[in-house]
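User: I've been going back and forth on whether these two constructs are worth ordering. Before I decide, could you fold them both?

Assistant: Sure. I'll take them in the order you sent them. The first construct and its structure tokens:
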Amino acid sequence: MNLKSEGKCVYCKKSYAGNAISKHLAACSERIEENSKANGNERIFLIKAGAYPFWVYFEANASDKLAKADDFLRDLWLECCGHLSMFKINGVVYAYDPQPEYEDKDMKISLNKVLSVGANFSHEYDFGTTTTLGLKCLSERTGEKLKDIEIIARNEMPDFKCKCGKQPKEVCSQCIFEIGEEALLCGQCAKKHECGEEMLLPVVNSPRMGVCGYTGD
């Protein structure tokens, strides 16, 4: 899969490719100016999360709990049927429903207790049909405490195409695991698809697209 993946910086409103947005955010004059006006001494992390071609950059208070980041990712990209989830950081599992016999830790721990700038970690949602996200803590600044986790940049809908060349509207939840991008179907091709209407889900801007019962709502 080789898709165009772009998104807008919320500060300057300009679009950048997914492989360039990190560099831009570090140098964005509008972001630097805005953050220079911020009062307060709250430590704030800039974190990237994604599963190609989907990505998001967000800021969270270092004092926020991992559980809050889990809620954010569920609301943005993942939640469909109330599945379990976990983070894995430095080989340690921080789980939504920790199992002490497996040495799981609780998500009710502050980000600053488990993360530092440069740290790579992961998040998994649904241990049956799992969606795995890669995350990285990119930088840290100080400022006024954020009320909520804030999106700084997010990819726009990738330029998906149906096999006929048209813009797809639905994806086959069975074929997505077998043939990947070719499971994306326009309205006409969806009517002819052999797996049947009951297997179709909407094309959405999420790495959970086509999985379980996820509709993006």
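The second construct, handled the same way:
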Amino acid sequence: MVSATYDGFPAAVGVSRLSVYDWPTVEGLPGGGTPHLHLTCSEGYVVTAGRGSVQTLTTSGYRETPLEAGTVAWFTPGTIHRLVNEGGLEIVVVMQNSGLPEAGDAVLTLPQDRLTDAETYADAIRIPTDVPEAEQADIARARRDLATHRFLELREATEAGDPEPLAAFQRAAAALVRPRLDEWEQRWRDGAHAAATATGEQFGALRGADGRHLTEARVASTGPTARGRFGMCGRLNVYPGI
């Protein structure tokens, strides 16, 4: 049997290039992104320029991880994270499960009344693309600041020994994405699961002295399909479908 070959980007990860927002934050930091968590995807940073940090909040507590050119940092699903830009911070972001984060696997730390249902949440995070760029920037900044206020409240409560506000946010985030799990599972089956399965089949083929999958080798490349898009943490060059 000829082994399967997965044609997507290695390990079915997604890649984007991020220039972190340099807008001053609500508490006076020089710049930073919008706090949020992912429900099923780990996220990695390869810092290419500048300096700053990533602030993270989990049930284990709050921490800050310094970032500078050459740093590689990552965290697992459920980690509320917020990038702080102390000067020219640029990052190649590597996301688990390919396009799943763009399919909704992220929830911003908005006030609880914006997390009541999917429609309310979608309205709260939407950045229209049919308005001038300056207006998009104003909306992105207001969204970031709203989420930052809630993040700071969650951090304060957690550090004071009160786990309930964070737990309430986690419950709301899980409820928001539950209707989309069938769609997400299919993306995972077509991506990360297919990639891992192909590797397993290649192991089996090689053990059986069958190297025919090597004759199917091919090369692919792509460029960004969107440049400078307003994302959660900054301006993004997006490479979808890899």
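Notes on the second construct follow. The radius of gyration is 20 Å. The chain has a mean pLDDT of 94.
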